[in-house]
Amino acid sequence: MATTPQAATSPPPGFQPTFKRVPQSNDFDCAFACIAMIVNKPLAEVRQVAVDKFKLPAHGPFWVTEELVSQLFAHFGWVSTVYKEVSASTELPDLAVLMVDYDASTEIGRHVLFQRQRGAVGKPNVEYVIDPAYWVEPAQQIRTDVKDIALSWYVGVHQMKPTGK
After folding, report:
1. Number of domain units in the chain
2. 0.85 cut: is pTM over it?
3. How much is the pLDDT for 146?
4. Least confident piece of the model among 22-26, 119-123, 128-132
5. 102 in a structural domain
6. Backbone region of residue 126 per phi and psi (left: phi > 0; alpha: psi in -120 to 50; beta: other values)
């Protein structure tokens, strides 16, 4: 099972992430928290849309499917890809929901937000991860040491283009 390293590099001084961290409210809503960060909505609203519009059970067992992730992003004006496996040659998109701590035998992992902020001319790009897990130490909640994270799968995300009228 891949695990997230314990040692983390905090963001460099002056670094400002594009997205505001939304912490999980329980052990199982990491995907909803990542969606909430990207679409700039409260976690409770994202979950309520999943319940009201996409038939997620309000209580009891549920599974956050690839289809549900796609439907939620589309509802809020974003497009997401299918889950894609990470390989040695994978170039991650500039914005993605990553699966970490993946266990292939159970096909279960948890989700974090990844962004590559493109630097101005002559400035380096900054790649970072925002981890919504409530149990993660504050120094690891926003990390720029993404090359050390064992990745398994990702969902690329971008805003929908406005339709011409």
Report:
1. 1
2. yes
3. 80
4. 119-123
5. yes
6. beta
